[in-house]
Amino acid sequence: MSKLIEIRDLKKSYWREKLEIPVLNNINLTIDSGEFTALMGPSGSGKTTLLNMIAGIDKPDDGSITIEGQEISSMNETALAKWRANNVGFIFQFYNLIPVLTAFENVELPLLLTKLSKAERKQQTETALKIVGLADRMDHYPKQLSGGQEQRVAIARAIVTDPLILVADEPTGDLDKASAEDILNLMELLNKEHEKTILMVTHDPHAAERAQVLHHLEKGDLIKSDKKAVQEH
Amino acid sequence: MKILKLVFKNALRHKLRTILTILGISIAVFAFGLLRTFVTSWYAGVDASAADRLIVRHSVSFIFPLPSAYTNKIKTVDNVAEVSYANWFGGTYIDKSNFFARMAVDVNTFFEVYPEFLLSDEELANFKRERNSCVIGSNLAEQYNLQIGDIMTLDGDIYPGKWDFVIRGIYQPKFNSTDANQMFFHWEYLNERMNQESPGRANFIGWFIVKVADINKSSEVSAAIDQVFKNSTAETKSETERAFQQGFLASTGAIISAMNAISFIIVGIIMLVLGNTMIMAARERTREYAVLKALGFSGSHLTTLILGESTFISLLGGAIGLAMLFPFVDVFAQFMPKGFFPAFYIETITLVLCMVAVLVIGIAAAIFPIQRAVTTRIVDGFRFVG
Ligand SMILES: Nc1ncnc2c1ncn2[C@@H]1O[C@H](COP(=O)(O)OP(=O)(O)OP(=O)(O)O)[C@@H](O)[C@H]1O
Ligand SMILES: [Mg+2]
Predict the structure, then answer these.
(1) Is A75 on the interface with B (CB under 8 A)?
(2) Which ligand 1 atom minimizes the distance to the CA of A217?
(3) Which domain, by its residues, includes B76?
(4) Do B382 and A92 lie within an 8 Å CB cutoff?
(5) What are A139-194's pLDDT values in tens digits?
(6) CB pair distance less than 8 Å for B288 and A98
(7) I need a labelling partner for B377 at 20 to 30 A (CA). Which of B30, B153, B347, B365 fits?
């Protein structure tokens, strides 16, 4: 498999008043195309921070993040926004759907930034909703859906533009066991059948088992990486 | 779906809050428009005054009369095209609360120096012919249901006694701002009665109205007229009608200035109300704005969302306010004692001011929330807990 994401000597600190809080010390990491990667570690170890930088919504202090040959840490805000719209699908712990928009409208949202016609947008939105199994709930508002269904709408929104990478920050963190299982099955499906590269932060060892590669982060350092033998399917 | 749809959906998210804000804006715009209408109506007399007319009055005060013999002397001054004169009559028509101007005028010249009082040739001729006739404005005729041929009886105070006048003409106002609430009758008629009843008061007039031949020479003509009567028993003060009107209004100016100030204070207050609504709304949506930005939406998209919502609310409020203003001003104009204002109507400038105010409110209220939404970093937006 080919290298998709390459992280070299990544450093990041936050400043609280005049105190520097180092979050990521010196991260080196490679993620291959089509890989399902899980990122684990204790609370405050810097998982979200690392994920955010790979997704292009936060910037490193030092080091480089190269994705498909593009150095994203040196892009300006506008270029980065455009890059995100084309390449990254976001899945959050609390779904983050817009409450006044229907499931359909929420999924369609990223397509408003494309040049697609209304009919094309409709078709693509419906396809995404079909993949997550919610074609019959298109006109429902988020508050009319269960947590698991909301998360599936969020996943449809993440895949509707057919991005290169899916980033998921504790996607099952707020769900009961059965719903969590559904979401993980869906992510596995996206990885295997739709060949999405997925980067998932999780606390749950069960969830992490679904991934092919597992990285452990502790106090800003990558301490252990496991790579399962890639299962044939 | 379009961004615009999200603007509307956002605006209706907290229906009660939005409705209360819109209501607040509409009441404020209504109050603003009403106060502005009071102010502009009050000054309508000034605006209606022609620049080519001079008012010549007693140098001490316009309540002191001048000898009517001055007429011919004024006529000899250079650049004087026409001289007319008038006397304030006062008195009561039926009831003391019926307030309108009643004046004794020189019938031969008065309608020439006041071309904005439109009177047909026939009515003017009839008026001139009959010594105890009068001409009234169309508003008066409507208000008191008076027609040509009717008798108007005035109860004199400055000039005591009962005075009967037969209506021989009803003039129409040429402009919106023209005062159609006045009554004019023959100065000669008044003077004859004074000659008989109190001869010491005969042959005096209240003020002269001088039409200048060349508008640019107004100040020279004023000075020249005053020079003629210098060191006489009754010195004069000449000024343009506009200056005269402004002097007359100066005594009530404080109230009008207050109304003026209050009207703008209202705009300021409502700006804070909408600003507060928008800041609350934008704060609640901090996370959503972060999501939109993560998805690739730009600062200008967020600006469209917030500015759109803000101006939508303010324009809707403004439209409702103006919709209330028009019928109210109409009703108000009907029930207000006629003659209190020369004319009471909503001027175009008031409408323009209302709309400008509403737009400014909508934009100003959005500035702070936009600035916040655009500059908040995505990761901070996600970590934000309202
Ligand atoms: N925007 C920020 N400003 C200041 N400090 C921050 C910011 N984001 C993260 N931090 C700090 O950086 C450290 C790492 O945070 P991060 O969110 O990456 O941890 P995490 O591994 O995702 O933890 P959790 O499992 O609790 O989500 C924490 O100490 C956190 O307080
Ligand atoms: Mg985290």
Answers:
(1) no
(2) 21
(3) 65-233
(4) yes
(5) 999 999 999 999 999 999 999 999 999 999 999 988 999 999 999 999 999 999 99
(6) yes
(7) B365
Nearest Cα residue to atom 4 of ligand 1: A14
Taking the centre of ligand 1 as the mean of its atom positions, its distance from the CA of residue A125, in whole angstroms, is 33
Note whether residue A53 is domain-resident. yes
* Overall number of domains in chain A: 1
Residues B153 and B260 in one domain: no
- Between B2, B288, B295, which is nearest A110 by CB? B295
Q: How many domains does chain B have?
A: 2
The pTM score is 0.73
Judge residue B88's burial from the number of C-beta atoms within 10 Å of its C-beta, 0-12 exposed, 13-18 middle, 19 or more buried: middle
Distance A123 CA to ligand 2 centre (A): 34
The shortest C-alpha distance from A113 to chain B (Å) reads 7
Q: Does A80 touch chain B (CB under 8 A)?
A: no
Three-state DSSP string of chain B: CCHHHHHHHHHCCCHHHHHHHHHHHHHHHHHHHHHHHHHHHHHHHHHHCCCCEEEEEECCCCCCCEECCHHHHHHCCCCEEEEEEEEECCCEECECCCCCEEEEECCCCHHHHCCCEECCHHHHHHHHHCCCEEEEEHHHHHHCCCCCCCEEEEEECCCCEEEEEEEEEEEEECCCCCCCCEEEEEHHHHHHHHHHHCHHHCCEECEEEEEECCHHHHHHHHHHHHHHCCCCCCCEEEEEHHHHHHHHHHCCHHHHHHHHHHHHHHHHHHHHHHHHHHHHHHHHCHHHHHHHHHCCCCHHHHHHHHHHHHHHHHHHHHHHHHHHHHHHHHHHHHHCCCCCCCCCCCCHHHHHHHHHHHHHHHHHHHHHHHHHHHHCCHHHHHHCCC
Nearest CA in chain A to B375: A77
The residue type of B81 is A
Q: Which residue does chain B place closest to A79, by CA atoms?
A: B296
Q: Over the stretch B139-151, which tens digit does the pLDDT of each residue have?
A: 999 999 999 999 9
Residue B335 has a CB neighbour count (10 Å cut-off) of 6
Q: Domain of residue A142: give its range.
A: 35-57+77-227
Whether residue A68 lies inside any domain: the answer is no
Residues of B with CB under 8 A from a CB of A: 1-3, 5-6, 9-10, 12-13, 287-288, 291-298, 377-379, 382
